[in-house]
Design goal:
Elements (H helix, E strand, L loop, with lengths): L2 H34 L4 H7 L7 H14 L11 H27 L3 H25 L5 H26 L3 H5 L24 H27 L5 H14 L1 H21 L11 H41 L1 H4 L3 H28 L2 H4 L2
Helix pairs in contact: 1-5, 1-10, 1-11, 2-9, 3-4, 4-6, 5-6, 9-13, 10-13, 11-13
């Protein structure tokens, strides 16, 4: 596939992802505004606690959340123990779709991701709104069941699609690397592990761990060190999610889509002289344009964020959010968004072209 074709597909993928993210972020925006007036701050603080991926970490951390950390009053927050287990189960379900999501991204299956994310997110929002309205006494059961439905549908769509696609004439024409549906799952026959890829896997694992700590480390600190109670954590999480909306539904889809473009067009670890010069000029032009676009968006957020932070929080969550340090946090996020804009695209390009040894540093 030529560099121009890859750029066209990456741009299409980014456009669809932005539209999808904006649509469902707006949906969840109004849903959260609806929920904020019907559930307690303590429940919000508990729901926004993150669980790392993986079977061992899910089991270990579920044990910690149930038996080691502070457990809220069952009268005020019912269903805590079951909710922890259901969130852990939803993590395992999402892991089933993670490799298939990577394959879909690498092969630019644009419509698959749009359908999978759209169906699962719509179902989650509808179930959450319905349970909060008609069964508010279910407490944390509401959010845990909605999350379980979301991950279950997400995995089902990806698995179902690839079960249909693998072995089809379209897959054969596209030289799709998976020839049978058994190829989607781990198998001990033959050579189950490509040892030449182990160092690269270690590099990406370290990157993922570091990125997780940098992006959500404050949640772990607040939870394990008990710096904030659940009510304060709930307010912080709402402000944090609201402040990072632009980064999630605009910057993130652009970074994910054009990371694929950079990886496919440029040779990882090769010097400038060893690259195809026409492709290199195209990449330089695309990178410069992306940086200008995201900086323009970031500066726009910075200009209006300082003036309208208090009003936005008051309209979104009422006095519970607009009073106190909520407005100050939103103003800080306005400046932070500009830094995220520049860092995200730069990091996307650097990680796509760095040598394996450099990735491990």
């Amino acid at each position: 596939m030529s560099a121009s074709a890859i750029l066209r597909d990456a741009s299409t993928l980014a456009s669809y992802n932005v539209i999808l993210q904006v649509t469902f972020r707006l949906l969840t925006f109004f849903l959260n505004a609806f929920i904020l007036r019907r559930v307690s701050q303590e429940m919000l603080g508990i729901v926004n606690v993150s669980f790392p991926l993986g079977l061992l970490s899910s089991a270990g951390l579920a044990y910690i959340w149930i038996y080691c950390l502070h457990v809220p009053d069952p009268a005020g927050v019912p269903g805590y123990h079951i909710a922890v287990l259901l969130f852990a189960l939803s993590v395992l379900l999402e892991l089933l779709s993670e490799p298939l999501w990577v394959v879909a991204q690498a092969h630019l299956f644009i419509r698959l991701r749009v359908v999978a994310d759209g169906v699962s997110m719509a179902a989650k929002c509808l179930l959450t709104a319905g349970l909060v309205t008609f069964l508010p006494h279910w407490g944390l059961w509401i959010f845990s069941l909605a999350q379980l439905l979301h991950t279950g549908l997400l995995s089902a769509v990806y698995v179902g699609y690839f079960l249909w696609y693998i072995g089809s004439p379209a897959a054969s024409a596209a030289n799709f690397p998976l020839s049978t549906w058994r190829s989607m799952f781990f198998c001990w026959k033959g050579k189950p592990l490509n040892t030449s890829l182990v160092p690269l896997i270690k590099s990406f694992l370290l990157q993922s761990f570091l990125k997780q700590i940098l992006t959500e480390g404050e949640k772990y600190i607040m939870t394990f060190l008990n710096i904030l109670n659940f009510a304060d954590q709930g307010v912080y999480d709402v402000v944090n999610n609201l402040g990072s909306l632009v980064a999630r539904f605009v910057f993130l889809p652009i970074e994910e889509s054009f990371y694929i473009f950079f990886v496919k067009v440029l040779r990882r670890g090769a010097d400038v002289a060893e690259q195809n010069q026409e492709d290199l000029q195209l990449v330089a032009k695309v990178l410069g344009s992306l940086l200008k676009i995201v900086q323009f968006i970031g500066l726009t957020i910075l200009c209006f964020g300082f003036s309208y932070s208090h009003l936005a929080l008051h309209l979104y969550g009422g006095n519970a959010l607009s009073q106190g340090i909520g407005s100050t946090l939103m103003r800080c996020y306005s400046a932070y968004v500009l830094l995220l804009a520049i860092n995200g695209i730069s990091e996307c390009f650097v990680f796509a072209v760095m040598k394996q040894q450099e990735l491990q540093r």
